[in-house]
Amino acid sequence: MTKINEIFKEHGIRLTQQRKEIFKILLNISQPVSANYIHNLLKNKLEKSRLSTVYRNLNTFKDLGIIKEVSSVNNNKKLYELSIGSNHHHHLICTKCGEMEPLDCPLEGYEDELKKKTDYKIIDHSINIYGICPDCINKTQKK
Ligand SMILES: [Zn+2]
Ligand SMILES: [Zn+2]
Q1: Which residues are involved in binding Fe cation (predicted)?
Q2: pLDDT score recorded for residue 138
Q3: Which of 21, 38, 104, 110 lies at a C-alpha separation of 20 to 30 Å from 81?
Q4: How far from each other are the two terminal CA atoms of the chain, in whole angstroms?
């Protein structure tokens, strides 16, 4: 939690109760989630939380670089996941059913190398790997 406190302070933005709760939800989940999903969980904790506020807060998080938007393959819905801290990972995505598996990042050493080679300050990277999941392979084979 410390890190997010610092980020908000740095930007002079108040860390409201709802923002804290949203952050906690994202921290505890390994898959990208929709605003609706977050809203449903929040309703149990914070009575007054509205979907529009959730969207607004998610945008604030995005502007601060705390979360990033990924779009789900099967229905083009916007999903959100943390982009800071130990939660950094990549996705293996099934193009048939849209299932996503989190993958560990293989690129940390490479970023350091690249920094040395190019003098760039490396900020971020993103990789998705696409394929067909075992379930979907089984389904097509049975037909
Ligand atoms: Zn699949
Ligand atoms: Zn990575």
Answers
A1: 88, 108, 125
A2: 93
A3: 110
A4: 50
User: Identity (one letter) of the amino acid at 138?
Assistant: N
What's the token pair of residue 90? 């990549």
| pLDDT of res. 7 | 84
Shortest-distance ligand to the CA of residue 89: 2
- In the Cβ-directed half-sphere of 80, how many Cα atoms lie within 13 Å? 27
Residue 105 marked ligand-binding: no
**Where do the domains of the chain lie, and which CATH numbers do they carry?**
1-85 (1.10.10.10), 89-143 (3.30.1490.190)
Round to whole Å and give the CA distance between 101 and 90.
8
Residue with tokens 């977050």: 38
Instruction: State yes or no: 111 annotated in a binding site.
Output: no
- Residue 13 CA to residue 11 CA, distance in Å, equals 5
And the tokens for 72? Answer: 């789900």
